[in-house]
Specification:
Integrin_bsu_tail, 6-stranded mixed sheet, 5 domains, alpha+beta, integrin, Rossmann fold, cell membrane, Immunoglobulin-like
Length: 846
């Protein structure tokens, strides 16, 4: 296992542990995406990032991830954080129209046989009054007479990039929703039989449709082709009468405005004449365009399902075909109808393009139903795929199935809802719905089928800004979400949060020509945006300077290690070092190569340069104040503190030492070693007890020579003794202990010493220690008496002892006297008067 795999394994294990602890901060698993963002808008365009405006914040950490900020990191004060959140507010939320329970009113009762005028004033207010006749009052109360099938109607959204937002949208199909059907018929000669059939079927169509919705209107228009060669023969007689039963050809003619008078429909169809043209494709696109855009003429109601039935047996001309007839002016997509209902621009404007039709059909929420014969059905199917909301039905050769075709198509159209939107590519809009399956899962689709009246369908609309458009104007968009073929929509006023407010003039963090940027840039959101030819973090560099030798080499200290830029404690910016800020506010790195700091100096007593009142640290050296000196500013310059106070000799250290840094260093002589704060002590030296004696006496005990209060006050001003219970001399403090008898034969004790300020301090015992007084004659008499008594006692004792001895002797004498018998026996002490001697040398027997 090589080192790489090992470390990788370690990493894996480490990550595993972290993950299992469920506390893995994002910074561990993936690189923090925020740190690389140097501008406010870049920052807030990154999800999960926030920006710090604080002028005193470190520039390279302004874009941060609030979720991962730990407490040790320097935090951005709340007031400076720019972290906008998605905001939604509903501007309009009308309640949906409810399906009313009264049931569908029989269509027959609504058939109006009155002869209507040709012209129709198709406005909703008229329709509204109609609607009251079928009992829609309930809705009127809800939305001012309007049918509401989509809610909400308008919302305001402020979105961050790549942060999706879900909106709940509801769709319901209202009962008896009005239907407008405009029948657009190809009246070229081949369609004459279809026309006959339609005029016969007209009533049936109306009747069938009224069975589906009681609020139904029918209109009629026809088309042939442009009256220009080669579409139409322009020979004079052909122009007037292309065929026997034909009328003069025309582009498009509007015959009957949408009307509830359905009888008129058959009538109008019957009265319309066929015409003739030359080529096979017809000018149907002109007709579609006009019938779609001429809202007033056709009479499209604002609130109605709009059906445009386009019936033909031929294919169509489209944009570009006009060139064949010398028509180059493109179609303008506007309404050009004469009072008689003829399309006036037929010979002057080209056919509209499919796209144009798609657009105008979409804009007008019209469902086009192509009812075409089998021969052309394929091409119309392709066309329908490119036109929103359109469908194709197969028409029999004589249009006999037109009624069922329309009914089928209508039912299909009205039973499906398909949501669309017009958002630009910068915004993604997704639809999620369960359609009618209330228990099912949400499906990503914009289309639901088989809807019946009264069904409520919920769409979840997910809006997400994919990227911020470069163009600022596009940051605000209006997006329309609408069901195809219904003139109702949800309008989203979307504001993309692509920029910070502080990037716009007028904000307090926006300052042009700012002194913070050396007057060479705009101060924006805490950073400088430099004018041309200036650069650097504070725009301190200019291109003129840069033209000099500005390379990273200028950031390398000449006498330092090679290749180390800014001593690794700063960034090399435009050839100058910009030193990093320290986490601790009390520390600063500086110098042209960031080689200096104000925190790496000698310490004394744990204080940098003996504390700020002694000196400050400058680039590794302590700079001391006036009074101090030494490498750590711990040495006092003046000798004043070496003079013993309260002496007149004026000798430094009492003449027995030298003064170093304001402290006496005492000498050692043959007398012994000098000691004490001022070298005033030595084994043979006298102390100064006597000097202070009188004052201690008078101040403490009111005795002594200065007993008089006035004397005491005038002569004793140097100190005031501090009373203590018991006086103990503290050798370390250089305290001297003194004790004297006063006139009362009492001992009083005190200590004196010099405190840190060389001020004399005296501590004296509260109470003097006094002896009891004894009367002398008593002692003398006592002694004599004691001696006499002692002699007497000895005499008596001698007398007693001798007496006892005498008695004993006498008693023994008496006893022996009694026992004495003058024995006849030999007196022990009697010695015979004669004595015999033997001569040892005599050997005769004698
Ligand atoms: C609109 O109103 C309906 C009820 O009237 C409510 O359920 C829905 O939440 C509202 N929608 C919004 C976006 O406020
Ligand atoms: C047809 O519309 C007219 C007004 O335009 C109205 O007076 C009449 O009642 C309507 N007829 C039917 C059957 O709705
Ligand atoms: C149709 O309306 C126009 C004005 O809009 C009017 O001049 C004309 O007479 C009306 N035609 C009929 C048949 O009422
Ligand atoms: C009208 O609708 C009813 C039921 O909704 C149906 O029975 C009847 O056949 C329909 N009439 C026509 C002409 O379609
Ligand atoms: C759709 O309805 C609104 C009012 O709800 C109306 O202003 C607008 O003109 C209508 N659009 C069309 C194409 O009819
Ligand atoms: C027709 O319009 C719709 C909606 O604007 C669009 O999605 C579709 O692509 C358009 N079709 C063509 C062929 O442009
Ligand atoms: C979408 O349609 C609305 C309403 O017609 C319009 O105001 C808006 O500008 C359109 N938005 C886009 C992006 O085209
Ligand atoms: C609804 O959805 C669930 C799960 O997707 C499915 O099992 C169920 O058959 C669906 N019901 C209907 C009526 O489609
Ligand atoms: C730039 O540097 C080169 C060599 O390092 C030196 O020869 C030249 O004079 C310098 N130019 C300026 C403008 O300082
Ligand atoms: C170091 O410098 C900074 C900035 O000038 C200052 O705030 C700080 O008090 C200094 N620290 C010391 C120990 O002098
Ligand atoms: C302080 O005393 C030392 C010797 O004890 C002497 O060398 C020095 O000059 C004196 N300094 C001053 C300011 O008198
Ligand atoms: C006390 O002080 C006065 C003058 O202040 C002086 O005349 C007197 O001698 C002093 N007494 C003693 C005992 O020193």
């Amino acid at each position: 296992m090589d080192l790489k795999t090992q470390s990788f394994l370690l990493l894996v294990i480490f990550n595993g542990i972290c993950a299992s602890l469920q506390q893995v901060p994002q910074a561990f698993t993936s690189a923090n995406p925020c740190t690389s963002k140097g501008k406010c808008h870049e920052c807030i365009q990154t999800p999960s990032c926030a920006w710090c405006n604080d002028p005193n914040f470190e520039d390279n950490h302004r874009c941060f991830q609030p979720s991962t900020v730990t407490s040790q990191q320097k935090q951005c004060p709340e007031e400076y954080v720019v972290n906008p959140d998605n905001i939604e507010s509903t501007l309009m939320n009308l309640t949906l129209s409810k399906a009313h329970k009264a049931g569908i009113i029989s269509s027959g009762t609504l058939v109006d046989v009155a002869e209507g005028s040709y012209n129709h004033s198709g406005s909703w207010s008229a329709s509204g009054s109609e609607s009251s006749s079928w009992g829609g009052g309930e809705w009127g109360a809800q939305a001012g007479g309007k049918i509401v099938q989509l809610a909400p109607q308008r919302i305001n959204l402020k979105l961050r990039v790549r942060q999706s937002y879900k909106i709940d949208m509801w769709y319901t199909q209202a009962e008896d929703y009005p239907v407008d059907l405009y029948y657009l018929m190809d009246l070229s000669k081949s369609m004459s039989d279809d026309k006959e059939k339609l005029s016969l079927l007209g009533d049936q169509l109306a009747y069938t449709m009224k069975n589906l919705t009681s609020n139904f209107k029918l209109g009629f228009g026809s088309f042939v082709d442009k009256v220009v060669m080669p579409y139409v023969s322009t020979l004079k007689d052909k122009l007037e009468r292309p065929c026997e039963i034909c009328v003069a050809p025309y582009g498009f003619r509007h015959h009957m405005t949408l009307s509830n008078n359905t009888h008129m429909f058959s009538d109008m169809v019957k009265r319309a004449d066929v015409s003739g043209n030359l080529d096979a494709p017809e000018g149907g696109f002109d007709a579609i365009m006009q019938s779609v855009v001429c809202r007033e003429h056709i009479g499209w109601r604002e609130q109605a399902r709009r059906l445009l039935v386009f019936s033909t047996d031929a294919s169509f001309h489209y944009a570009g075909d006009g060139k064949l007839g010398g028509i180059v002016k493109p179609n303008d997509g506007r309404c050009h109808l004469s009072r008689e209902g003829f399309y006036t621009e037929s010979s002057y404007q080209d056919y509209p393009s499919i796209e144009q039709i798609n657009l105008s059909v979409k804009k007008n929420s019209i469902n086009v139903i192509f009812a075409v014969t089998e021969s052309t059905i394929d091409i119309y199917k392709q066309l329908a795929a490119n036109i929103e909301g359109s469908s194709v039905g197969k028409l029999e050769g004589d249009s006999s199935n037109i009624v069922s075709l329309i009914k089928e198509q209508y039912e299909q159209i009205s039973s499906t809802v398909e949501m669309k939107h017009n958002a630009s590519s910068a915004v993604s809009i997704k639809f999620y719905t369960r359609c009618l399956n209330s228990t099912g899962a949400l499906v990503n689709t914009n289309k639901c089928g088989n809807i019946k009246v009264g069904d409520l369908i919920q769409f979840k609309v997910e809006v997400e800004v994919l990227k911020c458009p470069k163009n600022r104007d596009e940051h605000k968009q209006t997006i329309q979400i609408y069901p195809v073929g219904i003139n109702e929509s949800l309008i989203i006023d979307l504001e993309m949060l692509c920029e910070c407010n502080c990037e716009k003039p007028g904000d307090r963090f926006y300052e042009e020509n700012s002194p913070r940027c050396n007057h060479k840039g705009t101060y924006i959101c805490g950073i400088c945006e430099c004018y041309p030819r200036a650069f650097g973090r504070k725009c301190e560099c200019s291109t003129e300077e840069a033209s000099r030798n500005i390379t990273d080499a200028t950031c390398v200290r000449p006498d330092g290690p090679p290749g180390v830029k800014c001593s690794n404690r700063g960034d090399c910016v435009c050839g100058k070092c910009q030193c990093h800020a320290r986490k601790n506010d009390n520390e600063r790195v500086y110098g042209p190569y960031c080689e200096c700091d104000n925190f790496s100096c000698e310490h004394h007593d744990g204080k940098l340069c003996s504390g700020p009142d002694h000196g400050e640290c400058d680039c590794g050296v302590c700079r001391c104040t006036e009074e101090w000196t030494g490498t750590n500013c711990a040495c006092r310059k003046s000798n004043a503190t070496c003079y013993a106070p309260d002496t007149s000799d004026g000798l430094l250290c009492s003449g027995h030492g030298v003064c170093e840094c304001g402290v006496c260093k005492c000498d050692t002589t043959e007398d012994g070693r000098y000691s004490g704060k001022f070298c005033e002590r030595c084994p043979t030296c006298s102390d100064r007890c006597i000097e202070y004696k009188d004052c201690v006496q008078c101040q403490m005990y009111r005795t002594g020579p200065l007993k008089d209060e006035h004397d005491c006050a005038t002569n004793c001003t140097k100190f005031t003794p501090i009373p203590v219970k018991e006086v103990v001399a503290n050798e370390e403090n250089n305290e001297f202990k003194c004790a004297y008898y006063d006139e009362d034969e009492c001992i009083f004790t005190y200590v004196y010493y010099f405190d840190n300020d060389n001020k004399l301090q005296v501590k004296a015992q509260e109470n003097r220690e006094c002896r009891e007084k004894i009367f002398l004659p008593f002692i003398v008499i006592g002694v004599i008496a004691a001696v006499v008594l002692l002699g007497l006692a000895i005499l008596l004792l001698w007398k007693l002892l001798t007496t006892i001895h005498d008695r004993r002797e006498f008693a023994r004498f008496e006893k022996e006297k009694m026992m004495a018998k003058w024995d006849t026996g030999e007196n022990p002490i009697y010695k015979q008067a004669t004595s015999t001697f033997k001569n040892p040398t005599y050997s005769g027997k004698g």
